[in-house]
Amino acid sequence: MKKIFMVLICLLPFIGFSQFKIKFKEMEKVENPNFNNYDKLVFEATSFVFSNPMNPKSEEFFYAVKIAQFWMNKDTEFGMPIFGEFYNKLTKENNQQFFYTLAMMHYNLVQKIEKNRVIKFVKVEGVKFSDLPEVREVQYEGAKILLDYAKQKENNFILNNDMQIYIDANENGKLQELMFR
């Protein structure tokens, strides 16, 4: 009985997310994939990324990121407002901009899957696109997800000085003010 229990404990980490590689390969084969057929998988992948330390050597982490990345350049039902002062302060070299985009995608998926809400960016006459409440919401909530993840040393996320300023602002309740001044 003890041996069975030990074997189950050892296999547990592979049961939940080891399918990312298989699911990615299957998804990649589809000629014109429809996002609605994969949104739950992408949600699982982004959830995995933001609840585990960054480890590109981990097959689960690698393929979770690949699944989300696959959809970054495809047609989904929501946009990623990848612009603004916060985005520009993040570096490409350390994948900070990439993970911010991933965090915004995750926020959109949380809204869709858990709250049955799809956030659309609809242009309003006389209002700058960057000032739309939906655009700001997705940017702000994505920034919070990224900053909460990045501040945890065990997640191995490389910070720059600007990012630390935003982490401090987030912890002090001043993030929104700093992002949209």
Mean pLDDT: 88
Report the span from N to C terminus. 61 Å
Strand content: under 5%
The ordered H/E elements are HHHHHHHHH
User: Uncertain segments of ≥5 residues (pLDDT<50)?
Assistant: 2-17
Helix vs. strand class: mainly alpha
Strand runs, count: 0
Report the major sheet: none
- Percent helix range: 55-70%
Radius of gyration: 18 Å
Count of DSSP-assigned helices: 9
Q: What global shape is seen? A: globular
Plain-language structure description:
The protein is mainly alpha-helical. Helix 2 (20-29) packs parallel to helix 4 and helix 6 (96-115) packs across helix 7 (133-150). The protein contains 9 helices and no strands. The protein has helices at residues 2-17, 20-29, 39-49, 59-72, 85-89, 96-115, 133-150, 161-171, 175-179. Mean pLDDT is 88; it is low at 2-17. Helices cover 61% and strands 0% of the residues.
Fold blueprint:
Blueprint: H1 2-17, H2 20-29, H3 39-49, H4 59-72, H5 85-89, H6 96-115, H7 133-150, H8 161-171, H9 175-179
Helix pairs in contact: 2-4, 3-4, 3-6, 6-7, 7-8
Distinctive features:
181 residues, mainly alpha, disordered N terminus
Summarize the structure.
The protein is 61% helix and 0% strand. It has 181 residues and is mostly helical.
